[in-house]
Amino acid sequence: MKIMTLNSGSSSLKYSLWDMPAGIELCEGVAERVTMHGSFIKHRPAGMKEVTLTTELPSHDEALASIVELLAGETAEGTGRISDVKGVGHRVVHGGAKFARSIVIDDEVLEAIHEFSELAPLHNPSNLAGIRAAMRMLPNVRHVAVFDTAFLTTLPRHAYMYGLPYEWYEKHRVRKYGFHGTSHKYVSRRAAVLLGKKPTDVNVITLHIGNGVSVTAVRRGLAYDHSMGFTPLEGAVMGTRCGDIDAAIVFHIMRRENLTPAQVEEILNKRSGLLGITGKYVDRRDIIEAANRGDERAKLAIDIECYRLKKIIGAYAAAMNGVDALVFTAGVGENSPLHRRRICDNLEFLGIELDPLKNETAVHGNEMDISSGDSCCKIFVIPTDEERMIAEDVSDLLHGE
Q1: What pLDDT, on a 0 to 100 scale, did the predictor assign at position 401?
Q2: In whole angstroms, how far apart are CA 241 and each of 214, 227, 268, 270, 276?
Q3: Cα 56 from chain centroid?
Q4: Domains 2-147 and 197-386 share a fold
Q5: Which top CATH class is 197-386?
Q6: pLDDT tens digits for 15-26?
Q7: Collapsing DSSP states into helix, strand and coil, what is residue 199?
Q8: Across 6-10, 221-225, 382-386, which has the greatest mean pLDDT?
Q9: Residue 133, exposed/middle/buried by CB under 10 A (0-12, 13-18, 19+)?
């Protein structure tokens, strides 16, 4: 059974094609600068070099039409015809507390995704545009919504509720939701496989460290706590997001700088975090290079980021009464030995002990055990694969119908 995955952004459309349930990725690609001048598609059949096709893509419909046309010519590469596709899995960022699992899309689901756009205005509308385009282009296949928030709906009430007036939760749905759930679900399950145990038999802390950063405590296979909150702004220090702060700072700065709520929101989301600390950099490679040149603010940014993540690990280990595996994933988690080392420093009292050589020589794209022989807790680098997780969810759902 051929399964297609789609991840629709405001100006991009990422896709992949899978042979399921064998779990074989046949091709992948991304349409960039959709709705903008100078758009193009990067396409890579499995085992072959990436090719770039320059074409104007004034809308998501045109982008998807170009992708479908591209896939229709892939028979010689072993992908099969686009007509063989039985299901399309769509990444949707926010499903609130309504969707605890992936679901076949109907009018009610479309309305719910639209409704939750209020909580994810930068993501859900784009996700919805991609879904509608795909449903028009491929009307005879099953379309499935795979929600980033679904894996995190198992958080207990004492973890997702805030110390705020309860009526805010009842009237305005103010609670912790969390994000990156598809990534955390995938790597936590892979960690259980590497441990040789069932997910229900282990406690895992997963660190998704990219431009956005989130940490999940996975207790006996279920999400138990998570660092992001009502929005992705809560939690760790990120590329441009501030993470946890004293809420009173917002009102103080609004008065002192004469700023509107919209201006402060923009600063906290897009001009804070590592960018705010360094004044220049978001990319960790640039920050590390600057720190090595003696840039004190770059050094401070690394200190703050790693310290905050270390604190979250300690808190989650306490919340779960122990941890069997620590997992690093996403761009920084998979590729920065410095961050992994700094985060794990002095966690030996929790049974977390890094092997310096394994950490430095971890191979990009490979699953690696980088813990020392004396470590009671395994430390893994596991490349995230959200597309595979989406394809598996769609395959499981369609097989169950």
Answers
A1: 61
A2: 12, 13, 6, 6, 9
A3: 29
A4: yes
A5: alpha beta
A6: 999 999 898 999
A7: helix
A8: 221-225
A9: buried
First to last CA, the chain: 14
3-state helix/strand/coil string of 38-105:
CCEEEEEECCCCCEEEECCCCCHHHHHHHHHHHHHCCHHHCCCCHHHEEEEEEEECCCCCCCCCCEEC
Summarize pLDDT for 141-193 with one digit per residue, the tens: 999 999 999 999 999 999 999 999 999 999 999 999 999 999 999 999 999 99
pLDDT in tens, 221-244: 999 999 999 988 999 999 999 999
Whether 384 and 394 have beta carbons less than 8 Å apart is answered as no
Q: Which CATH number fits domain 2-147: 3.30.70.360, 3.30.420.40, 3.30.70.20, 3.30.2130.10?
A: 3.30.420.40
Distance CA 96, CA 317 (A): 26
Domain map of the chain by residue range? 2-147, 197-386
400 confidence band (pLDDT: 50, 70, 90): low
- Residues tagged active-site: 148
CB neighbour burial string for 66-82, b if at least 16 within 10 angstroms, e if fewer: bbbebbeebeeeebeeb
Residue 82: predicted pLDDT: 66
In which residue are the tokens 């459309």 written?
Answer: 13
- Rounded to 5 degrees, φ, ψ at 118 are -60, -35
5 Cβ partners below 8 Å, 6+ apart?
15, 16, 17, 18, 88, 89, 90, 91, 387, 390, 391, 394
